[in-house]
TrEMBL record:
InterPro entries reported in the protein's UniProt record: Csc1-like (IPR045122), CSC1/OSCA1-like_7TM (IPR003864), CSC1/OSCA1-like_cyt (IPR027815)
CSC1/OSCA1-like 7TM region domain location: 210-474
Species, as recorded: Kalanchoe fedtschenkoi (Lavender scallops)
Domain (CSC1/OSCA1-like cytosolic) ranges: 40-197
UniProt biased composition (Acidic residues): 567-582
Transmembrane segments: 207-230, 242-264, 303-326, 338-358, 411-433, 454-475
Recorded GO CC terms: plasma membrane
GO molecular function: calcium-activated cation channel activity
Keywords from the UniProt entry: Calcium, Coiled coil, Ion channel, Ion transport, Membrane, Transmembrane, Transmembrane helix, Transport
PANTHER family reported for this sequence: ERD (EARLY-RESPONSIVE TO DEHYDRATION STRESS) FAMILY PROTEIN, PROBABLE MEMBRANE PROTEIN DUF221-RELATED
Protein name from the UniProt record: CSC1-like protein HYP1
Chain segments carrying region Disordered: 547-588
Species lineage: Eukaryota, Viridiplantae, Streptophyta, Embryophyta, Tracheophyta
Any coiled-coil regions, as ranges: 127-154
Length: 588
């Protein structure tokens, strides 16, 4: 069996190296062939010190004009717009209600939402009432935009743009001040990927929130042990008969006992796991990330390790050594305990692959839950509701796929019967997700293969776990030679992982000076660069500060956009011809 472990390890490491190398090359190739993007020329600066009598905008302009006079292009100060964002959201909802009422003249509505038709009133009166409320909201938005445009609502953060990608990368990698908490630089996300609500938080607040999130994740992990214990109790008929004596006669029926001990536990566990990705996404959103993609990536990492711990380790040990606390006090015995516990849960994980894997693949194809939600919303929204194209739920699907990879790696020599079930799932998932990516989902931003390091680390962990289980099994079977041969494998695997980190991971965190300079020289010959730089000036303007323009399909004459901000007026003055390329209005 030792040669099988070696063969699987060598083959897996070869595939991991090949994929890492391939994705890295594709990432660089995509960078060279892509058009200039605003985030490649921009950085985010936080902790901006402000002297008395000056604004954040003045401080940013003075600092970068002094130290980077030849490469500094422009900046956009971030403002506190949480309240304004809420008002715009209310206006959007109310406008949708008005549009729905005007498009369906045969229905009488109750109140502004009026789904049941209770207390009916004339449609025209109701539309007038909602339009009056909308007018008040418009006025509040105008006033709030004027207040936010003042220097008092500036945060100590700004997006700073440069004339070349190399200049932006240089500023990003250098410490800008003697005080490391001032002029802190971060890589700027794509403009449509910016997560605006968390910019008003201070350095200390972000640091506290990170600690709070860590504590919350630990508490959630501990609390999740409760359903795991309940699930594992269902897999043991003897425990059920002791706890519920009145079920003894029912449990003797073969079909009932098979359903309760085989299918039901994994189904219950899967229902509890459905709530984990949204919770992890919320916790990641308050950690201080400035991009939706970073929030999803952080949530993905949290869900991966949460699933490995609570579904694999907690399930394995709760079914066999739940009350043996010594497992935590004697780490040397962990391989032996794993060797006993993991094979005992093979039937449970086979059922889990069917209930979680096959079912999720079928649900993804038919999208049953979104369809039901659409049916429930249709009586209220009518036919005027805008089609909302879903985004790819990376933090939900990637952890599931990686967990099944862990099951396949650890069970290939313990319970090979699980492999056909996993193979069927991976084939179905490949076909279904390929269709979903092409025809169903939309992408908010280009990931550029940034999730691959997570996949690589998860597979390395799976290999090391397989080695630990193999050592335990060979030790229990008193195969000292095989056990001794396995010992070098974890060390060699970790050395291989360290080599990959040194060789490929820097490509996923930033581009080299060679690549940046080569791309800048290539862009110098691009005739569209002057137009790109003119748009870059206002690319990172908060959408809440842009004018709101209602569609021309409305019956009333109130289509005047809200007041433009001062930054927009300055941008228009710089453009001269008034083409308004940087203005992209909300259309409700």
């Amino acid at each position: 069996m030792a040669q099988n472990v070696y063969a699987v390890t060598i083959w897996t490491c070869y595939l991991l190296y090949y994929e890492y190398n391939y994705i890295s090359a594709k990432r660089i190739e995509c960078f060279y062939s892509s058009k200039p993007q605003p985030h490649q020329f921009t950085i985010l600066v936080r902790g901006i010190p402000v002297s008395q009598g000056s604004s954040v905008s003045d401080s940013v302009d003075k600092f970068f004009s002094e130290y980077y006079p030849s490469t500094y292009l422009s900046h956009m100060v971030v403002r506190r717009t949480n309240k304004l964002r809420g008002l715009i959201g209310e206006s959007k909802k109310l406008y949708k209600r008005i549009t729905h009422l005007q498009s369906d003249p045969n229905q009488q509505r109750a109140g502004c939402c009026g789904c049941l038709g209770l207390f009916r009133r004339h449609r025209a009166d109701l539309v007038d009432q909602c339009e009056k409320k909308l007018g008040d909201l418009e006025e509040n938005v105008r006033m709030q935009q004027s207040e936010v445009s003042s220097s008092e609502e500036e945060t100590r953060a700004a997006f700073v743009s440069f004339k070349s990608q190399y200049a932006a990368a240089t500023v990003f990698h250098l410490q800008q001040s003697v005080n490391p908490t001032e002029w802190v630089t971060e890589r700027a996300p794509e403009p449509n990927d910016v997560y605006w609500p968390f910019f008003s938080s201070s350095f200390m607040k972000r640091w506290i929130y990170k600690i709070v999130v860590i504590v919350a994740c630990i508490l959630l992990t501990i609390l999740f042990l409760i359903p795991v214990v309940i699930v594992q109790g269902l897999t043991n008929l003897n425990q059920l008969e002791v706890l519920f004596p009145f079920l003894t006669s029912i449990l003797k029926i073969t079909f009932v006992s098979s359903v309760i001990t085989g299918y039901l536990p994994s189904l219950i566990l899967q229902l509890f796991l459905k709530s984990v990705p949204p919770i992890m996404e919320f916790l990641s959103s308050i950690q201080g990330y400035i991009a939706h993609s970073e929030i999803i990536k952080s949530a993905c990492n949290k869900v991966i390790w949460f699933t490995i711990w609570n579904v694999f380790f907690a399930t394995v040990f709760s079914g066999t050594v739940l009350y043996q606390v010594s497992i935590f006090l004697d780490p040397k015995s962990i391989p032996a305990r794993l060797a006993v516990a993991v094979p005992a849960q093979a039937s449970f994980f086979i059922a889990y692959v069917v209930t979680s894997g096959w079912t999720s693949a079928a649900t993804e194809l038919f999208r049953v839950i979104p369809f039901i939600c659409s049916l429930l919303r249709r009586p209220c929204a009518g036919n005027t509701e805008e089609l909302e194209i879903p985004t790819i739920p990376y933090h939900r699907d990637i952890p599931r796929i990686l967990f099944f990879g862990l099951l396949g790696t650890t069970y290939f020599f313990l319970a090979p019967l699980i492999l056909p079930f996993l193979l069927i799932y991976f084939c179905l998932a490949f076909i279904i997700f390929r269709n979903q990516f092409i025809n169903v989902y939309r992408s908010n931003n280009e990931t550029g293969g940034r999730f691959w390091p997570n996949v690589h680390n998860s597979m390395i962990f799976s290999l090391v776990l397989m080695h630990a289980i193999a050592v335990g099994i060979f030790t229990l079977k008193k195969l000292s030679m095989a056990s001794t041969l396995i010992f070098p494998l974890p060390v060699l695997t970790l050395l291989f992982n360290e080599y990959c980190r040194k060789r490929f991971l820097p490509i996923f965190s930033s581009y080299s000076a060679e690549s940046l300079i080569k791309k800048d020289r290539q862009d110098e010959n691009d005739p569209s660069m002057p137009e790109f730089f003119s748009k870059l000036v206002s690319a990172y303007q908060d959408p809440a500060l842009m004018p709101i323009q209602y569609s021309s399909g409305r019956d009333d004459t109130r289509t005047t956009p809200l007041l433009s901000t001062e930054a927009e007026a300055e941008a228009e003055a710089e453009d001269g011809d008034g083409d308004g390329d940087g203005e992209e209005a909300h259309r409700f």
